Amino acid sequence: xxETSARxxxxxxxxxxxxxWSGAELSERLEVTARTLRxxxxxxxxxxxxxxxxxxxxxxxxxxxxxxxxxLLLDDDEAVAVAVGLRTAASGTVSGIEExxxxxxxxxxxxxxxxxxxxxxxxxxxxxPLTNTGPTVDAGMLSAIAAACRDNEKLRFHYxxxxxxxxxxxxxxxxxVHTGRRWYLVAWDxxxxxxxxxxxxxxxxxxxxxxxxxxxxxxDGDFATYVKRSISYAPYPHQAKVVLRASFEAAAxxxxxxxxxxxxxxxxxxxxxxxxxxxxxxxxYLSLTGFDFEVREPPELIERIRELAERFxxxxxxxxxx
Length: 322
Description:
By secondary structure, this protein is of the alpha+beta class. The protein has helices spanning about 1-15, 25-30, 35-45, 75-90, 100-110, 115-125, 140-150, 225-230, 250-255, 280-285, 300-320; strands at about 20, 50-55, 60-65, 95, 135-140, 155-160, 165-180, 185-190, 195-200, 210, 240-245, 260-265, 270-275, 295. The chain folds into 4 domains: about 1-65, Winged helix-like DNA-binding domain superfamily/Winged helix DNA-binding domain (Arc Repressor Mutant, subunit A, Orthogonal Bundle); about 75-125, no CATH class; about 135-225, Roll (SH3 type barrels); about 235-315, Alpha-Beta Plaits (2-Layer Sandwich). Strand 12 and strand 13 form a beta hairpin. The relative contact order is 0.06.
């Protein structure tokens, strides 16, 4: 009986690790006959786990969604990852899940082996999260939008723009992108007939879903790159293209991904696309990167840098005079 119970746990673990298994693969992994495998599958079904099966040459098994959550079987690294993720979620940018995250973390730590409790305790002791002071998003809102993305269902929602202006948007939602501080929805705006990014914390009411749509090709090659471009320089009145005298790797270490987009030119130079609300801000930011640079556009930025350079030269001259 003990051997059978251990084998059932192993079988359940395999179902959680991979969506679909052929009967031959499962028999080989468990080192049992096809007949024993069928009996074990029937035992899981009798315990309430819906195991779907298909017959034929390509037949196999798949764990379906049931009325209750089956026990999760985690290896050491997975358990540590879940514990760290729960601790982060308890103080993160998603409202409404803090208490649930703490409850789950408490349950997990009660059943962890001592070797894993020590690893997690060390991580928790020496990781100090900064309190999030920015806007948060509702967990139910995220779930509703994610479901619409998954099911290719159009959404309608009330949205507040950057300047506070209200609008009603009808969109085809494709992906959500998390930058670490903000959640963004990438969607095809049916009214503007173009791609748009929407800050989820500015969606003022739970979206209502509508008819299905056919997914479109991602803008800029992928959704993450599109969001980076949309928030790093596209919304600013002053946009610049600047050649940095540094390798792509060296520049990426100093320039945050949300401050601009880098493109490698060769082993020693790269192109930075960035933006700001003023030419002075752009000038100062570029001077503080620590790299020599050459402005390709816009011309007015070149002129502003020239004016600032002359001002700095006069300042040095006045300081050096008797």
